[in-house]
User: Fold this.
Amino acid sequence: MLVATNKLREAKFKELIAPHNKLLQGMALKMTKNPEDAGDLIQDTFFKAYRFFDSFEEGTNFRAWIFKIMTNSYITFYRKKAKQPKMLSYDVLEDFFLYDNLDYNHYSTRKVNADLVYEKIYDDDIKKALDTLPEQFRSVILLCDIEGLSYKEIEEIQGIPLGTVMSRIFRGRKILQKSLLKYAKEKGFIKNSQN
Assistant:
């Protein structure tokens, strides 16, 4: 009887998590900025989610629940990593294949692969600006503007009031706007004023 119950639990967990796999993997990579750390974060998230799956209330927002687990796991990971000495990797990966072979017609459809857009359309200046945002602003900007989550979902994931979510998004966008002003002028998005 216990084996059957565990099989049902496992099947239900897989059913609920499957639609969110790519979104979770993309967000983990954006959070950690490292494929190995992202893999560890995903593994830790899945482990904790399965372990505490009994605490998930059926009928509530599973995506928000799993993202909250991942966000909390990331915070724990981030704090632990901050205490460790920095390791340098001399194996710098430069993969321009996807960028050089990007099919722009693919983006004319409504469904866009946010990870590919983030990695290959945003150039290094934009990625750097996003990466240098303070963590409290960066996480809500990534969830809202890159992953397309609603303010309400971000509220549930981050565990902060809706007003704080909106404030952090507003302030994060303002910081990005200031840090990307020179970039926008150089690229011709805005004209230099002669004041």
Observations:
- DSSP finds eleven helices and no strands in the chain.
- The chain has two domains: 1-93, 103-189.
- Residues 155 and 164 are 8 Å apart (CA to CA).
